[in-house]
Inverse folding.
């Protein structure tokens, strides 16, 4: 066969053959995404009906929670392909952003092939898991006694569609050899045939860590790399896959410090070359399961895929995302900001105060700092610039206000933290209220100081009559309704955090409907966007669960705890080191990813120090906030750069640095006075 490379292959397949396959992959991705969107709407309706049936009809359902959870699982995995097609799966672009376009494309293809290895392995194990559950007639422990293979089937289908979506992305920028049209399907059929023939039990090879099925998967994938991307890419992928396997095989039984360094180095290396965060976590876990355990245990891939998402608490994530998207669509955010600007009137820096207040209110209904940044960046920034505010103050205060999105409840970060470590999400929500309000006041104090030091940066506003202020305040009512639907029902005990999210989404839908801001097409687009966001977030949860399982088996967290205890390091110093690690990681890694990567190690340390897990949840969220606005990869900074149009990124960075100092100072205050976070939850007990 002629020599191939990724830039242009001899005997490349005709464009129509490749484009036909890509169109098929896109069709699969779109179909799975639409099924996920239907699942989202169905889950929201089920949750709302559960609350209605329990408190209005006084007849709680026995099926609502289970059905909603199963829909969540299906929606998450069916949305993976759509999220990948849209480019929503998070990757670290620190190196990629500085490469020329051809080299960036090569790195992205390389990263996709590595990610595909994990997805195929996990999808294969999930299919085996499904078959075993079917043969064993495994049923859940609830009143429904649902055969578990039924809700697990969408997980296997979702992984298959995800694998196709990754392959589709590769084919878009590659020129496969003409024989791919024939050999590609033959390889796929041959692989499926071999795996079916091998059955549900691994066929071991004496003296090898890999079983026959694993070898077949690796061989077919490498053959695919050769046919699609050429010899050079084959050499790069093969050297990485086989080289990592060999290094991990040799590391088995080594000192725990060496293994820990190897795991961290692999994690960082994969992130730097552009492998998606969720897939990076999964690959590190896969390597540990294959090579570092006494016996390879690939079944953990499927078990963690199912169990890490199969929890009703996580159903709050898509519903809060949906709620925020609907509120943005309704247009009430701009009106609420205008109402707050009227109240601050002629106060120097009044628009900046209004931006903080609007961010705090929006945070109380969205649960997302990214949504807060995107919304306030479009609403507050143009108004402030037009009225003569300095660019640095404008974008600095909006970036700072955006961080309130995951501190003031509800908070997606708190939901994932609580679910991961087993802390009550309701208590975390309550604990975030006082710190969120105090931090809002601290940001306003920062604006006041800025106004004194640089009066030209904050021109005074117009005097507005009281009657006009009161009339303008009516625009806050929609937010009051949503906040009552979410926080009111939650704190009155009417709804759980997940149910409160469903009620909030329903209230937001009604507001959009009454304001005639929602068409079928717009609702479909919002639902698909919500599914994509949920899918990439919860896939990170899956990857982190797989990696943490390997970490726990290797006793890395417990060994680290014993080492710290033996060293008798002062608690404040341990917390300081943890904080510094989060700040540094936050400069390069997305916030939720960073949290899930580190919790298997940092949470046991915090517990061993006798610190309150609820307090740590709030402290962790603030550290994550610092990462959101810290260069070079503070996501909020790039969101604001995107909505600003022409403002240089350095201006946004300079503007946010004083507020980063406020965040860090508040973190110190929270450590000295932990009651700031723990007092209110104790009063609610």
């Amino acid at each position: 066969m002629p020599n191939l490379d990724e830039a242009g292959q001899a005997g490349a397949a005709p464009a129509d053959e490749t484009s036909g396959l890509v169109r098929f992959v896109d069709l699969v991705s779109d179909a799975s995404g639409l099924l996920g969107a239907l699942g989202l709407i169905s889950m929201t309706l089920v949750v709302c009906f559960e609350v209605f049936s329990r408190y209005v009809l006084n007849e709680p359902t026995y099926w609502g929670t289970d059905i909603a959870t199963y829909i969540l699982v299906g929606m998450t995995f069916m949305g993976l392909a759509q999220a990948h097609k849209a480019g929503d799966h998070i990757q670290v672009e620190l190196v990629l952003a500085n490469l020329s376009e051809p080299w960036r494309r090569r790195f992205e293809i390389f990263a996709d092939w590595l990610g595909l290895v994990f997805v195929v392995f996990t999808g294969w194990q999930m299919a085996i898991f499904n078959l075993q559950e079917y043969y064993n007639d495994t049923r859940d422990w609830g009143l429904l006694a649902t055969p578990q293979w039924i809700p697990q089937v969408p997980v296997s289908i979702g992984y298959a569609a995800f694998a196709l979506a990754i392959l589709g992305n590769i084919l878009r920028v590659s020129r496969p050899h003409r024989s791919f049209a024939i050999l590609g399907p033959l390889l796929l059929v041959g692989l499926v045939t071999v795996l079916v023939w091998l059955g549900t039990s691994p066929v071991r090879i004496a003296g090898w860590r890999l079983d026959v099925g694993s070898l077949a998967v690796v061989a077919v994938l490498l053959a695919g790399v050769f046919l699609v991307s050429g010899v050079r890419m084959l050499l790069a992928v093969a050297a990485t896959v086989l080289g990592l396997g060999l290094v991990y095989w040799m590391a088995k039984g080594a000192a725990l410090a060496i293994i820990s360094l190897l795991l961290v180095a692999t994690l960082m290396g994969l992130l730097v070359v552009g492998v998606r965060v969720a897939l990076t976590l999964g690959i590190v876990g896969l390597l540990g399961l294959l090579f570092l355990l006494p016996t390879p245990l690939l079944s953990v891939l499927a078990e963690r895929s199912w169990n890490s998402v199969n929890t009703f608490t996580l159903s709050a994530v898509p519903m809060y995302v949906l709620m925020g998207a609907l509120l943005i669509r309704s247009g009430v955010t701009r009106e609420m900001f205008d109402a707050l600007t009227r109240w601050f009137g002629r106060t120097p820096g009044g628009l900046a105060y209004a931006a903080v207040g609007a961010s705090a209110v929006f945070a109380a209904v969205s649960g997302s700092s990214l949504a807060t940044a995107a919304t306030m960046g479009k609403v507050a920034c143009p108004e402030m610039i037009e009225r003569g505010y300095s660019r640095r103050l404008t974008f600095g205060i909006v970036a700072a206000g955006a961080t309130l999105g995951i501190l003031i409840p509800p908070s997606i970060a708190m939901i994932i933290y609580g679910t991961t470590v087993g802390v009550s999400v309701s208590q975390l929500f309550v604990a975030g209220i006082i710190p969120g309000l105090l931090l809002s006041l601290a940001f306003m104090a920062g604006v006041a100081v800025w106004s004194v030091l640089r009066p030209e940066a904050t021109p005074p506003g117009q005097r507005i009559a009281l009657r006009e202020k009161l009339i303008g305040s009516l625009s806050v009512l929609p937010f009051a309704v949503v906040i009552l639907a979410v926080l009111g029902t939650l704190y009155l005990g009417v709804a759980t955090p997940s149910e409160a999210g469903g009620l909030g989404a329903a209230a937001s839908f009604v507001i959009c409907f009454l304001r005639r801001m929602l068409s079928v097409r717009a609702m479909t687009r919002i639902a698909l966007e919500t599914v994509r966001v949920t899918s990439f977030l919860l896939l990170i949860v899956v990857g982190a669960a797989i990696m943490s399982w390997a970490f726990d088996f290797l006793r890395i967290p417990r060994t680290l705890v014993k080492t710290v205890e033996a060293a008798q390091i002062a608690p404040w110093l341990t917390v300081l080191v943890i904080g510094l690690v989060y700040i540094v990681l936050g400069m390069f890694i997305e916030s939720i990813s960073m949290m899930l990567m580190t919790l298997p190690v940092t949470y046991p340390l915090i517990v061993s120090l006798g610190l309150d897990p609820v307090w740590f949840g709030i402290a962790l969220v603030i550290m994550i906030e610092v990462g959101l606005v810290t260069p070079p990869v503070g996501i909020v900074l790039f969101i604001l750069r995107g909505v600003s149009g022409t403002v240089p990124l350095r201006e946004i960075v300079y503007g946010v640095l004083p507020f980063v100092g406020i965040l860090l100072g508040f973190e110190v205050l929270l450590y000295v006075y932990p009651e700031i976070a723990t007092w209110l939850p104790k009063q609610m007990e």
The chain has two domains: 15-310, 313-518+554-684. Residues 313-518+554-684 form one domain. DSSP finds 29 helices and no strands in the chain.
